[in-house]
Amino acid sequence: MASQYPIQIKQTPKFTSIKDWTHSDAYHNSFLIPQDPVLNAALKNSAENGLPEIAVSTAQGKFLHLHAQLIQAKRILEVGRLAGEYSTIWLGHALPGDGELITLEINNKHAKVTEENLSNAGLSSKCKVIVGPGHDSMVSLPSDKKFDLIFINANKPSNLKYFTEAKRLVRKGGIIIVDNIVCFGCVTDPQESDHNIEGVRLLLSGLKGELDWFCLTLAKRASAELLSL
Ligand SMILES: C[S@@+](CC[C@H](N)C(=O)[O-])C[C@H]1O[C@@H](n2cnc3c(N)ncnc32)[C@H](O)[C@@H]1O
Q1: Is the overall model pTM greater than 0.90, yes or no?
Q2: pLDDT per residue as tens digits for the range 128-143
Q3: Which of 125, 137, 139, 225 registers the highest number of CB atoms within 10 A of its CB?
Q4: Beta strand spans in 63-111 (E)
């Protein structure tokens, strides 16, 4: 039987830049993800109030939503919320009427913007915000009320600590997603080092021994990692 490899690629491969990825995302989204006035208003509100543009991308938001739906999540924990303008809304809208989303955020400078964004999205009653260092807040959460999905998107140096707590808090069969762990390819480059990169490397080393976990990295622009039990 003829070998499948090497794969014949008909297109000429081209190196892709952030600009290319952004353009490609926008192109695909224009077919697959209709404009959502609520999400657009939240992004606009956050930008007008000076919040940094560091929310997950549109496709990542939908990806999070899809995972929450697939496992029929009723309780979600988000570490690192910004002003609740993006991942929080995508995740919140995946929940059933009696679902609950707890978000942990260290910086409450933009509490008013968050309130507006979540209220406009109809999520005020489902979404509870705990202000303070994410790890302290996680430690204070009881392990008898498990979460179906935990999304970690805060400071990378604490990723392993967050993962350790997330393991305690997630139900069997649940999902933990950690955002931004490819860091534009820098994590794999031995010449590169800073506290974020080292935080991701620490997480990866910690995960290597976690044989009960089904782990993978999905490379996107900066990327997400998926883990499930
Ligand atoms: C990338 S943003 C989150 C974006 C948000 N998940 C979204 O996609 O819309 C990271 C957030 O983590 C928060 N953060 C940073 N360090 C933190 C810590 N130690 N505990 C909790 N939150 C933290 C920052 O204030 C910021 O709002």
Answers
A1: yes
A2: 999 999 999 999 999 9
A3: 225
A4: 75-79, 100-105
Which percentage of the chain shows pLDDT scores above 90? 66
Contact status, residue 83 vs residue 206, Cβ threshold 8 Å: no
Residue-by-residue DSSP string for 18-62 = HHHHHHHHHHHHHHHS---HHHHHHHHHHHHTT--S-SPPHHHHH
- Residue 22: its pLDDT value, please? 86
Residue-wise pLDDT for 192-209, tens only, equals 999 999 999 999 999 998
Q: What are phi and psi of 124, to 5 degrees?
A: -55, -40
- Please give the structure tokens belonging to residue 22: 């952004």
Which residues have C-beta atoms less than 6 Å from ligand 1? 54-56, 80-82, 85-87, 104-107, 133-134, 153-155, 158
The protein residue with its alpha carbon nearest to ligand 1, atom 27, reads 82
Domain range summary for the chain, segments of one domain joined by +: 56-228
Atom of ligand 1 minimally distant from the CA of 104: 21
Tokens of 61: 């938001």
Residue whose token pair is 């993978």: 216
Q: Does domain 56-228 have CATH number 3.65.10.10?
A: no
Residue 189 host element (H or E): none
Which residues partner with 103 through β-bridges? 78, 129
Residue 174 has pLDDT above 60, yes or no: yes
Q: Residue 79: what are its φ and ψ, rounded to 5°?
A: -105, 110
